[in-house]
Amino acid sequence: MSDEAQFDVASIMGGLYGDGIIACKGAYSTQWADNLGREIMALFEEAQATPGGALPRGPQRFYVECHPERISGFVDIATHPWFMAVCEAVLGPDYKIVEVGFDIPFPGAQDQPWHRDFRAPEATLTGRRLNSLAFNLTCIDTRPEHGPFEIAPGTQWDAIPDAKDGMFPDKSLWGRYIDRAVQKMPQRGDISARSALTIHRGTANRSNEARPVLVIGVDAPDATNAHHHDLQVTRAYLDSLPPQVRDHLTYRVTDDLETVIQHHVIEGLLEPDYS
User: Could you tell me if 19 and 154 are in contact, meaning their C-beta atoms sit under 8 angstroms apart?
Assistant: First the structure.
């Protein structure tokens, strides 16, 4: 039996097509997660020094895209049996990794408005099929005061035709999300997978610690999220990758890694929700 075969496809599909989020607890050691956290914070300092390198996602909250080879554990993630099993079950055998980045809510980050990460495609609204996933890996042991991720299970199927940018449902609908809201408390070493279309928000960080989270975006062949990202690899790094990573990676080969200048400011996230 292959490593992937130990994970039940029905459970994976049921979780992501039902609640919209699943997790693998203890996929990595706490030491592995601590190293990831150090790398993320160093990359954030670099990004801050470059105009457009770190995008605001609200007060004291930032998102940064980075290069796979700057994350020493990237291959560990892309070859983890659970990661591969989830991608193949939901997105098919030709899935592609299209995004590597991280989100950091610092102390003072406020509640975000309820939103999905991008406009729902016809494959989901009409075809009732998920064609992309977001994987998250926390770098700290999340506590309530850290401003945990909050999700409204099952709302990846919601049609919100009048929503701003197709992402931000009107406040008249927020009662539905508040009633369904579940706060997630991942610990170091955990990995989760979710539909980025499930309505969610980051909550206020009332602690004295940042809460860095690595994000890996993965598409099915018909999804178009790769158009919004610029995954770069050097030739030496590409040649070092095992086939099961290289064959599932969207990339641009470059002699020297260029800073990812990000232009996708999400205006709806720049103001906190105080209601």
Answer: yes
